[in-house]
Automatic annotation (TrEMBL):
One of its GO terms (molecular function) is sphingolipid delta-4 desaturase activity. The keyword RNA-binding does not apply. It comes from Nyssa sinensis. This is Fatty acid desaturase domain-containing protein. One of its GO terms (biological process) is ceramide biosynthetic process.
Length: 260
């Protein structure tokens, strides 16, 4: 209970802080952002900061490109996630899918920074077990796991990449949880201007409302999860080939890939 209602919010906040740092938004010197990302990674329990940056920046450069963009569900996932049961399982385990997807579909050899991230993280994990016991370590891991699953904070994973309206490929969220998530809900604004830090993304919408106010958006990530699980709009999954051509798979309730 404590992990779900307390630790999950903190750990997911750190995950999204790492997202900010992956864009080098804390310091002008990239290596400082990398070190801070490794530090923010520590309570999460699993080394992911350096690897996340490597794949996430490709998500921005090649969004929707099949075989490159690993931030979004694969066609295999779309074929399997087609009913309430499979959707529920996918939502609960979506952190595992998110973490393992690139390892299976686009593995990259680890560099020196991955090993630095790994060694520091394992050192902290070992120290946690040694000084405070396995229960303390399990609390950190559980907080990370539940915070990325059937949890309001994790609704942004779905709201960003699930096409509910075939005329719009990605969506923003303008609700209170932006205060705890570095304004990651401003998703359209973030992809238009990835070098603007989260705490200033609202100004993008204020300065250029004509580009955003006419778009569909959300005020509840919990509602997004509910709609994804229980309503089954027949929307397709859209990807982009290297030649720029589009192909789609129409699946009942499939995860749609944004091509913005």
């Amino acid at each position: 209970m404590v992990a779900y209602f307390f630790g999950s919010f903190l750990n997911h906040n750190l995950f999204l802080a790492i997202h900010e740092l992956s864009h080098n938004l804390a310091f002008s010197t990239p290596v400082y952002n990398r070190w801070l990302g490794i530090f923010a990674n520590l309570p999460i329990g699993v080394p992911m900061s350096v690897t996340f940056q490597k794949y996430h920046l490709e998500h921005h450069r090649f969004q929707g490109v099949d075989g490159i963009d690993m931030d979004i569900p694969s066609l295999t996932e779309a074929h399997l996630v087609t009913n309430v049961v499979s959707k529920s399982i996918w939502v609960i385990l979506q952190l595992f899918f998110y973490a393992l997807r690139p390892l299976f579909l686009k593995p990259k050899p680890p560099g020196i920074w991955e090993f630095v991230n790994l060694i520091i993280q394992l050192g902290l994990d070992a120290a946690t077990v040694y000084f405070w016991g396995w229960k303390s370590f399990a609390y950190l891991i559980l907080s990370t796991f539940v915070g990325g699953g059937m949890h309001p904070m994790a609704g942004h994973f779905i709201s960003e990449h699930y096409v509910f309206n075939t005329d719009q490929e990605t969506y923003s969220y303008y609700g209170p949880l932006n205060l705890m998530t570095w304004s990651v809900g401003y998703h359209n604004e973030h992809h238009d201007f990835p070098r603007i830090p989260g705490n200033k993304l609202h100004k993008v919408k204020e300065i250029a409302p004509e580009y955003y106010e006419g778009l569909d958006s959300y005020k509840s990530w919990s509602q997004v999860i509910y709609i994804f699980q229980w309503q089954c709009p027949e929307h397709g999954q859209v990807k982009v080939n290297f030649d720029g051509a589009f192909h789609s798979d129409t699946l009942m309730g499939a995860l749609a890939i944004v091509t913005r």
